[in-house]
Amino acid sequence: MARVIRLPNHGRLIVCTDLQGCLRDFRAITEIFLRVNAQCRGLAHLLFTGDLVHGPHLYEHEWPEFLGEYYRDQSGEVIDEFVALSGKHPGQIHALLGNHEHGHIGGPHTAKFALDEVLLLEARLGPAKTEWFREVLYGFALAAVAPCGAVFTHGAPAAEIDSIEQVESADLQTMEIESVLDILDLPVIGPILWARSASPEAAQRFVRAMGGTISIYGHDVIPEGFERIGDEQIVVSTSFGVFDTNKVYLDLDLERRYQSVYDLEVGREILPLYPDKALKSLGGRAD
Ligand SMILES: [Mn+2]
After folding, report:
1. What is the pTM of this model?
2. Residue 48 CA to ligand 1 centre (angstroms)
């Protein structure tokens, strides 16, 4: 199983970060992909950078306002529609493993919205569907690279590696790791799935070892929609924990070579998920 996706040097790439079971936002990014794919005659790709699953199970009156617009977890439906979309567009739909997916296939169980989100989702899916669901997740990669220079991971680019092969051959089993607190110490996959930040020096080393120039990831919530760190890193929030006015995705030109995250511009590569609701400062139409 190749753990690194290699994207081509032509066409466009739509990038969506953490959905956490939000079916409405999954459908919004799907519409965007279909539109771009029609524009570039079938040469578009769509990449999810992990944490497609595990959202809140709250009633509307229990919902904390800072999490953005209310939704209820629909992780099972998100994966169903992801698989259906992948079937309709073979080789064009890609996904990275997030720390929330990893819990279902060997990683530590997450406890963001429930005491054990892995057991909760698997109980809701039932045994037969759980087996299918795990098979889907086994197909998710740890990183994606593109000749345009972009290197994608779920978490921050803090892993210490000398070459891309170390990511390609990484073992997903965490064995004796019981506590989420120990996971960052695990080489390669610990930081890739869990790190919330990386120093500019660590990020430079990581992207260079991966053969790229810039690092693009999610995992953390950026309430403003995105944040650049140095010339190498950009954190993007497409869905989870962000208001509709601030949700952004990326639309990359795979023929270009990006040298810095400042080559990604609002209104061109950085675009609002909901243009009618989004702030003008994020390329939207609302004041
Ligand atoms: Mn995450």
Report:
1. 0.96
2. 12
Q: How far is 204 from 107, CA to CA, in rounded Å?
A: 27
- Span from the CA of 154 to the centroid of ligand 1 (angstroms): 7
15-33 confidence digits (pLDDT tens): 999 999 999 999 999 999 9
Predicted pLDDT at 1:
61
CA of 105 to the centre of ligand 1 (A): 15
Ligand 1 geometric centre to CA of 197 (Å): 12
pLDDT tens for residues 173-185?
876 666 666 788 8
Give the model's confidence band at 171: pLDDT under 50 very low, under 70 low, under 90 confident, else very high: confident
- Residue range 123-135: average pLDDT? 97
| Centroid of ligand 1 to alpha carbon of 19 (angstroms) | 10
Q: Are 179 and 187 in contact (CB under 8 A)?
A: no
Q: Give the strands of the sheet with 226-229, arranged side by side.
A: 4-6, 143-145, 150-152, 214-217, 233-236, 226-229
**Which domains does the chain show, CATH number per domain?**
4-282 (3.60.21.10)
45 dihedral zone (left: phi>0; alpha: psi -120 to 50; beta) = beta
Interval between CA 20 and ligand 1 midpoint (Å): 9
- What's the gap in Å between 220 CA and the centre of ligand 1? 7
Ligand 1 mean position, distance from CA 172 (Å): 16
